[in-house]
Amino acid sequence: MIPLPSIRPSALRLGTAVLALCATTTFAQSPASSSTRDAANATPPAIVIHAGTLLANPGESPLKTRTVVVRGGRIVSIDEGFRPAASYGTDAKFVDLSDRFVMPGLIDLHMHLSISMHAGPEVSGSEARLALNGAAYARRLLDAGVTTVRDVGDNGGTVYALRDAIAAGDVPGPRIFAAGRVISRTGGHGAKRPGPTELHFEPAGCDGVESCRRAVRENIEAGADWIKLTVSGSGREAGGRADAQPIMLADEIAAASEAARRAYRPIAAHAHSTAAINAALANGATTVEHGTYFDAESARLFKQRGAWLVPTASVAAFVRSQLSMFAGNGDVKGTDELKQWADAAVANPGRAWSAGIPLALGTDGGPSFDADTTAKEVGLYVAAGVPASAALAAATRNGAEALGMGDRLGRVQAGYIADLIAVDGDPLADVERLRTVLFVMKDGVVHREVERSP
Predict the structure, then answer these.
(1) 448 to each of 140, 354, 383, how far by Cα in Å?
(2) CATH code (residue 290)
(3) Which residues form the domain of 183?
(4) How far is residue 171's CA from residue 169's CA, in Å, rounded to a whole number?
(5) Which of 64, 77, 151, 393 is the most exposed place for a label (fewest CB within 10 A)?
(6) Given pLDDT bands bounded at 50, 70 and 90, which one contains residue 453?
(7) pLDDT tens, residue by residue, 194-215
(8) Residues β-bridged to residue 108
């Protein structure tokens, strides 16, 4: 974990100087020229895409031979057949995906863009290097067709800067929803003090009602879009066992949740044990992260509350492949017990699907993972028994709905933000196709074009 950046005296002096300049300087203004006004009012040129197969609404059957028209970052129409680009304006740009499968961009609801397991102290101890490391990974994610990410744990706050830089167009990457510091009991999972090679930060560990409210409010003041609570221990710890009690007390969970709701911040609750999952759902969590040991009552609460499960099978599969690295003594599970948890977590998407629990998709990935990990997660859903159509919906439409963006993201529909990807072949028949994305558009801007032989 890494620290929240502090406001340095030099930055305060600079800000004061800028405010003083703005207060005392009069800038000459001249009326805008007619050409400037015309340029501002001009209709942006259309981007006309011929889509051979179009998965417009994931979870439903794809469409054939469609023309998708994008203008000003939004999808303006989807027309039958392949219509000439010139019919949408002489300045229209044509994109030929007539032999490709086109669908919405991928949405990963559980990432940690500032945490790299393989980073040395020169990175983990440097705020600047952490930000640059995250930016490099964000670009690779966008190349891989991930157009939206929710970062659910960055104790140092560098992801806020990355989020804002991407939104401003300064660096390429997915749009980011950031939770900032992880909130838990003092010393709880994600809220431990920094190690000797990490930058100093003040963890968001809290004890008691007032303390937990304050931690939430501090995160919101720092810029959090979401609130991340760790209600159980990790999958490695005793506090993450199936029968473990929540690591936060009932009044602490309730107080943190209420503070988040009053500020219109949704809650992402890390929970493995049954009691922790049900406590998070009872207190209004929008998403439950991992959710390994849900029971029938959990399934009822998911449906009743309209909450989403984000199973993160990828990280469990990774832990299973490296048991000796993650197993331990004391509070950390031994190899056999850790493998039991990993097996259960990898199977969890299929079990949840069978129970009728709404599924979204997240990987628990970050710069240590391959950029196509989100696509691999789709494959793990299918391997666990989730139908391919439902797995693709989890990675697109459902993720958008969980973010409260279901009216703008996750579908290819008129009025929606133009986030589109294209692959060769049919991922509904073979989800491995998602691991090789050939075309990426985000916010109506082509980030990656199909390479064709001359």
Answers:
(1) 11, 37, 29
(2) 3.20.20.140
(3) 106-402
(4) 6
(5) 64
(6) low
(7) 777 777 678 999 999 999 999 9
(8) 149
